[in-house]
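From the shared-data thread, chain only:
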Amino acid sequence: MVAERAAKPQLRVGRLLKAHGLKGALKVELYTDDPDRRFVPGAEFTLQVPQDSKWHGKTVVVREFRWMNNHPVVFLEGIDDRTEAESIVRAILWIDQDAAESEPEDDAWYDHQLAGLDVVRDGEVIGKVSRVDHLPSHDLLIVRANGDEVMVPFVAAIVPEVDLAGGRVIVTPPAGLFEELPEEPAPADGALEPEGGDRAASE
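Structure, as tokens:
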């Protein structure tokens, strides 16, 4: 029996923003510092799209990459008109990581490096990162805590430190993110007077 080859780690390099023109071009939001190397003709990307998308489970190949009015634009094989381009808008593009690319740039981490890290608040481990979800506005750390999945915005105000060597991420979450807040007791009858009520009656 032939052993299955381990899947390569992947890098997120861009997101398709919107159709551009009538010939299938797409504007790209770049998540890479070297787009001219990533988007060479023939480069193949794995797509992150909803399961009900016709592109789910498929890959795309770059036909051409260029800059138009200072905006990066990509042409993909098999996408030759605006209608087809619009069907793939909002897809996130992933590419296999090269063996030489073992270290990310500062303040950037690959998904596979974050998965499994302890999540620490006030010096106490409260869960583990199970995966990273990528949204248009920001990324989410999906944390497994007390049997539940907690969606933690991956922003500096809430995740101020990622310590790969220590195997942990430090979080400073807002109250209620990891636990239920106690309900505030309802005010007792008569505790609050109707605004201006009794005063008006006595005048």
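The chain has two domains: 10-96, 114-170.
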